[in-house]
Amino acid sequence: MRFILWLAAAALPLVCAAQAYPSKPVKIIVPAQPGGGLDLVGRTIGDQLSRALDQSFVIENTGGAGGTIAAMATARAAPDGYTLMVGYVGTHGTNPAVRKLQYDALRDFTPIAMVGGTPNVLVVAPSLPVSDLAGFIAYAKQNPKLNYGTGGIGLLNHLALVQFTAAAGLDVPAYVHYKGIGPAITDMLGGQIHVLFPGLAAALPHIRAGKLKPLAITGLRRNPLQPDLPTFEELGYKGFDGVQWYGIVGPAKLPPEITKRLNTEINKALAAPALRERLAGEALEPMPMTPEQFGDFIRADIARWSALARERHISLD
After folding, report:
1. 152 vs 179: CA distance, rounded Å
2. How buried is 267 (Cβ within 10 angstroms: 0-12 exposed, 13-18 middle, 19+ buried)?
3. Is residue 91 part of a domain?
4. Pick from 59, 67, 128, 272: CA 20 to 30 A from residue 102's CA?
């Protein structure tokens, strides 16, 4: 009986802390400089949580090293709910697949809530005489000197392009790697490269202007922003459901009560039409999940890209 009373007394401070949470400003680390999808997600979710929990959620932009600096700062923070991070496909999907990291994307973090994802779209230069995916594959096999670009080695747009060329049986001697998808698109518009696999948000303005020709999109169903564009899945290419995803994570061993409360409020916000409309501006589709589902999603994403990286010998080490 004395032991049971001791356990109850020991647990009481944790329960009280969770009930009072948050009693001071909460920091959300964004692993990128201001601007772009990561920053949008951090600020949007921070604003929603500030209103829902009547406390300040402050954004801290920490770019560099592909998100590693931000991830390390989060992993080392106290697991009290006052340091959160926008975890995304780079920090918790592709980076763990292609490089040795100073953090473990699974063991060092608490998955809190998935926010949403944007698909990747295979685009080619309008100068190529093709109108669909099958036509492009046939043309590419007859013209092996096409230039294939990426936004950087090991990024999602690189791995997705490698996944496609392997599935299509295309021989690509080398890829042109840029420091970001922006410079890659710029060179594609200038005619230096012919094939790219960017996120839909980055490609959409150029697709609508007729400067990039879309052939297929990732995901299990057509995207409402490009309803006439077929998915790889419906064209017979299985396993092309990867997306540029964004979520909220915290340090490992975050109290379950705090994790659940944050998850509930984020999922509630994702159901609001105004927020869905704001995310749609970045071609982001809400993907609400429980913390357990989000953790399983991260685990599966790492496994997917790790298998591809091993098979195609992609490594940054």
Report:
1. 6
2. middle
3. yes
4. 59
Q: Which two tokens stand for residue 148?
A: 């294939």
Residue that wins the pLDDT comparison between 220 and 305: 305
Q: What pLDDT, on the 0 to 100 scale, is given for residue 8?
A: 47
β-strands 83-88, 243-251 pairing: antiparallel
pLDDT digits 0-9 by tens, 126-170? 999 999 999 999 999 999 999 999 999 999 999 999 999 999 999
Torsion of CA 245, 247, 250, 256, to 10 degrees: -130
Tokens 């997600």 belong to: 41
CATH of the domain at 149: 3.40.190.10
Q: How many CB atoms lie within 10 A of CB 288?
A: 17
Q: Are residues 51 and 63 in the same domain?
A: yes
Whether residue 118 contacts residue 201, with contact meaning beta carbons closer than 8 Å, is answered with yes
Reduce the DSSP state of residue 187 to 3 states and report it. helix
What per-residue confidence (pLDDT) applies to 281?
A: 82
Query: Which range marks the domain in which residue 292 is found?
Result: 2-117+244-312
Q: Is the pLDDT of residue 300 over 50?
A: yes
